[in-house]
Amino acid sequence: MATRHLYLARHGAADAFGELTAIGRRQVGLLGERLAGIPVDAVWHSPLPRAVASAHELARHLPNVPVTEAAELIDHVPYVPSAAETPPSWAGFFDGYDDTEAASGQRLAEALVARFAKVPDTTAKGTQSDTHEVLVTHAYPIAWLVRHALDAPPSRWLGLNSANTALTVIEYRTGLPPTIVMFNDMSHLPADLRWTGFPGGVRP
Fold first, then answer.
1. Is 126's pLDDT higher than 80?
2. Average pLDDT, integer, range 91-113
């Protein structure tokens, strides 16, 4: 049975200009140490600088693993909900999104699923039965892939936030629905590096 293992990670902490900070580099380094024991086949990253820098910092712990940009991983709103689907706490968040922007985001979301949310292609010459791929991306694409794996309504991506360099793992097997192995796991980070990228609040 072929299995595709996707290791989804939000980029490290970034500054107001979208550049990786010293804290972000520490976070990514610790994630790299955690993933070093896994037979990673590829690291894919968003085109945005904070994700590019995170992916290359991560790759220092994964020798000889190819690092490649994937446009589908860019930060984007995957689905703009109707007023009836929008929780009160999100009211106003989507003000200003016109139909063109919403359609563009939805196309990106569909392309993201089509490219990554599937079992490996074992018909290709030299393809092994299992693949292990790291996706360095942003909170919204991770939320969308989790929502898709759960076969939840489109609006359920709302509120599925991910901390910087938290790890989410989804497995895709032939003939079975996707399996969410973990979501937003920060066990590789010390307490002072956890929960960055989240709104303020009391955290465990």
1. no
2. 93
